[in-house]
Amino acid sequence: MKLVYSREGGLFPQIAQTELQTTDLPADLQKVVDTVLADPTAYKSKSANKTLRDGYQYKLNLQEGRKKVSLTFDDLNLPDDVQPLIHFLQQRTGKP
User: Fold this and answer.
1) Distance between CA atoms of residues 74 and 8, nearest Å
2) Would the N or C end of the chain have less CB density within 10 A of its end CB?
3) Could you report the per-residue pLDDT of 33-56, keeping only the tens digit for each?
4) Half-sphere exposure (CA, 13 Å, Cβ side) for 54?
5) How does pLDDT run across 16-33, given as a tens digit for each residue?
């Protein structure tokens, strides 16, 4: 399964992006992706803070065959169980 991650925003707006196959993830993070893909509606952003300044927006795009899932989070609504995945992907971008 293909995973595309991007982070936008911050004090000095910048874009960080990476793309990989989920088989390249550690086993525990593969489970997170599988959980998200199994029930993506549980991870749909319930509220977005349009006035959030200097914050980040995190985008995950998962594609397995014809099935596509696109999720967007910000600093205030990033689910706890997705945070390790975001942290790992952000490190892969090579940007702080």
Assistant:
1) 10
2) C
3) 999 888 888 887 655 566 667 789
4) 2
5) 999 999 999 999 999 999
